[in-house]
Amino acid sequence: MTYPYILPPLPYAPAALEPNLGRSSVRLHHDAFFAAYVDRLNGALVPWTQYQDWPLERLLLHWCQLPRTLGQAVRRYGGGVYNHGLYFSSLAPARTTKPSGELLAEVEHSFGSMEGLHRSLKNAAMSVFGSGWVWLVCCSGGLQVTCTANQDTPLPLWPLFNVDLWEHAFIPDYENRREDYVEAALAIIDWDAASRRFRQRTAGKGE
């Protein structure tokens, strides 16, 4: 994915995540907030033609080495594009999927059980002050739960999924009840998509 960036369509209908996430809140989150990050990243890259062919991941990995104004824009807006892209592709329409095979084995190795992973994700999410994200990532020791502030990413770690902890993600449906939102979001994680990303990582494509 390189400049000019395009807002990817939702991989499901806006109402497909109900009752966990409402139709109007999903549409607003995707069509307004996500779209704004895409537009602002494109705008920031207009004068910097020498960086327009860099993949988004490369820009994000090296944002602090870019010219100052571009680097800050990449960190904020490029991070918003990357993070939201994974978020919307990490959720599944109101159906339950579960990890299996190698990913399930890795979850049990790293967290003891699915319940242990759920507890770690929820505790990490509730520890975030202000805006940010909670992630399940692959690292050298297996799987790890980590958090990032604002629109920072966990790169170069390889994320399997994330949950948006910005207020715009949950206030329309849950007001100030972030914990309820986190529970609802974790209940609709698309583990099939997470398993595909895990296989990509273990096959060496996430290096």
Automatic annotation (TrEMBL):
<dbReference type="InterPro" id="IPR036324">
    <property type="entry name" value="Mn/Fe_SOD_N_sf"/>
</dbReference>
<feature type="domain" description="Manganese/iron superoxide dismutase C-terminal">
    <location>
        <begin position="99"/>
        <end position="197"/>
    </location>
</feature>
<keyword id="KW-0560">Oxidoreductase</keyword>
<dbReference type="GO" id="GO:0005737">
    <property type="term" value="C:cytoplasm"/>
</dbReference>
<dbReference type="InterPro" id="IPR019831">
    <property type="entry name" value="Mn/Fe_SOD_N"/>
</dbReference>
<dbReference type="Pfam" id="PF02777">
    <property type="entry name" value="Sod_Fe_C"/>
</dbReference>
<comment type="similarity">
    <text>Belongs to the iron/manganese superoxide dismutase family.</text>
</comment>
<dbReference type="GO" id="GO:0004784">
    <property type="term" value="F:superoxide dismutase activity"/>
</dbReference>
<protein>
    <recommendedName>
        <fullName>Superoxide dismutase</fullName>
        <ecNumber>1.15.1.1</ecNumber>
    </recommendedName>
</protein>
<dbReference type="Pfam" id="PF00081">
    <property type="entry name" value="Sod_Fe_N"/>
</dbReference>
<feature type="domain" description="Manganese/iron superoxide dismutase N-terminal">
    <location>
        <begin position="5"/>
        <end position="91"/>
    </location>
</feature>
<feature type="binding site">
    <location>
        <position position="164"/>
    </location>
    <ligand>
        <name>Mn(2+)</name>
    </ligand>
</feature>
<dbReference type="InterPro" id="IPR019832">
    <property type="entry name" value="Mn/Fe_SOD_C"/>
</dbReference>
<feature type="binding site">
    <location>
        <position position="168"/>
    </location>
    <ligand>
        <name>Mn(2+)</name>
    </ligand>
</feature>
<dbReference type="GO" id="GO:0046872">
    <property type="term" value="F:metal ion binding"/>
</dbReference>
<comment type="function">
    <text>Destroys radicals which are normally produced within the cells and which are toxic to biological systems.</text>
</comment>
<feature type="binding site">
    <location>
        <position position="84"/>
    </location>
    <ligand>
        <name>Mn(2+)</name>
    </ligand>
</feature>
<dbReference type="InterPro" id="IPR036314">
    <property type="entry name" value="SOD_C_sf"/>
</dbReference>
<dbReference type="InterPro" id="IPR001189">
    <property type="entry name" value="Mn/Fe_SOD"/>
</dbReference>
<keyword id="KW-0479">Metal-binding</keyword>
<feature type="binding site">
    <location>
        <position position="29"/>
    </location>
    <ligand>
        <name>Mn(2+)</name>
    </ligand>
</feature>
